[in-house]
Specification:
about 425 residues, alpha+beta, 2 domains, seven-stranded antiparallel β-sheet, 17 strands, about 30% helix, oxidoreductase, iron-sulfur
């Protein structure tokens, strides 16, 4: 078959498109798209090496020489703040014989020194020292290879593409005013937790895109996360009517409060039709309406940025393929998704607080992280069980309901992006819609 169709990548593209052709619109994906190593390899090639990916925040590299690493699609990206306070990204590969420059996930350096042969690079990526290198070799051509990096309201995105698309800039223009009041440039990391979920990366993203499972699945989260999220009026079951009425009152109060403060809150979304599918909205929290705590009260004594009102609900920003972020008045929690294998996915959760907040005085790490540590553990079970199910020969894709609209949007985006990069149109005339 390879001889007839060409190189292995072409064979893989043909295979993934064949599977997409068999998908029933409005239904979950065929099981093979969650389990097949060849499909996974196509996704790495067509999506993860070509789209903008959330990698972290400026708060994670606050000082010159501070760095973080982001490993995805076989590449290791080094994000570092240089001596001129600029945040840059490079391939974490020495220009000599390819050794990894840094092996820690985060740290701080004066210069970047390769542990193999001591080639030394400045924080701007230029080669400063190479022992015994011939003087005839032009060292200006041996700086670290750059990776495209953009900042959006303190959030950092990179692209491994040789010529990245400009869609992130267009999205940034729409969402920046939602993010900047939280001043992530004046925040610090309070905690970071890595969790490897035993499921395909798409299942992790799909699970996050609905709260159909929240009422019984996330008791800690639904103390403040209204269980009717994502439902229209006519979809609210009678048993949740009281919760929904409380949500409507809180929504109206939040809108009034944000309008008075000049803080944007209305829904903006384009989840299907662009390379960087996104959704952003400020929504109310239950209880005191301030934070992710059992009664909704604030968890951090010092608010972020110049915010003076703790009751600002949650501004949730979602980008495809790999991030969701909750920005509250007292803290921010970011989530990044990174595929490891067809059935393993890294979920990194990072909690940010004001740089002036003092641990043990203004906040307690256990209390700050409790809700999402519990929620992540619960979601990991849901994802694992679903991975087991979609790998079962008995699995037949089922229909989405209205509460799962954003799941369907994600799947439609996925199909559209795969087809766009594979340059083969859908036999249905485009993505499902």
């Amino acid at each position: 078959m390879t001889e007839l169709l060409g190189d292995p990548a072409t064979v893989r593209r043909t295979s993934i498109l064949d599977h997409l052709d068999r998908r029933t619109p409005g239904h979950s994906l065929p099981g093979v798209l969650y389990t097949d190593p060849e499909v996974f390899a196509s996704e790495i090639e067509l999506l993860w090496r070509r789209r903008w990916l959330f990698v972290g925040t400026v708060a994670e590299v606050p000082e010159p020489g501070d760095y973080l690493t982001f490993d995805v699609a076989g590449s290791s990206v080094l994000v570092i703040r240089d001596d001129d306070e600029q945040v840059r990204a490079f391939h974490n590969v020495c220009r000599h014989r390819g050794s990894r420059l840094v092996t820690a996930g985060q740290g701080s350096v004066g210069n970047l020194v390769c542990g193999y042969h001591s080639w030394t690079y400045a924080t701007d990526g230029s080669l400063r020292y190479a022992p015994q290198l011939s003087p005839s070799i032009d060292t200006t051509c041996l700086g670290l290879r750059p990776v495209a990096l953009r900042e959006v309201g303190g959030l950092l995105y990179c692209s491994l593409a040789d010529s990245p698309d400009d869609d992130l800039d267009a999205v940034a223009a729409q969402v920046r005013d939602y993010l900047t009041p939280h001043r992530l440039d004046r925040a610090k990391v309070a905690a970071q937790v890595d969790l490897v979920e035993e499921g395909n990366w798409k299942l992790v993203m799909e699970n996050n895109r609905e709260c159909y499972h929240c009422e019984g699945g996330h008791p800690e989260l639904t103390c403040t996360f209204f269980p009717t999220w994502g439902l229209r009026e006519d979809q609210v079951p009678e048993r949740l009517r009281g919760d929904h009425d409380r949500y409507l009152l809180a929504e109206a109060d939040l809108a009034r409060r944000c309008d008075e403060l000049g803080i944007p809150h209305r829904l903006l979304e384009d989840l299907v039709g662009r390379p960087l599918g996104f959704r952003i909205q400020r929504e109310p929290l239950d209880g005191a309406g301030e934070s992710f705590s059992p009664d909704g009260s604030r968890l951090v004594g010092r608010l972020l940025g110049d915010l003076a009102d703790p009751r600002l609900g949650r501004c949730t920003f979602h980008t495809q393929p790999n991030a969701w972020i909750h920005l509250l008045a007292d803290h921010v929690v970011t989530f990044s998704v990174t595929p490891i294998s067809p059935d393993r996915t890294l979920v990194r959760s990072t909690w940010l607080v004001s740089a002036d907040a003092v641990e043990g005085v203004d906040y307690d790490v256990e209390s700050l992280t409790a809700v999402w540590r519990a929620t992540n553990a619960q979601d990991a079970v849901f994802v694992r069980n679903t991975q087991l199910g979609v790998a079962d020969p008995a699995y037949v894709p089922g229909p989405y309901n209205e509460a799962e609209r954003q799941v369907d949007d994600f799947v439609r985006w996925y199909e559209a992006q795969i087809r766009s990069e594979a340059r083969i149109p859908s036999p249905r005339g485009g993505s499902d819609g």
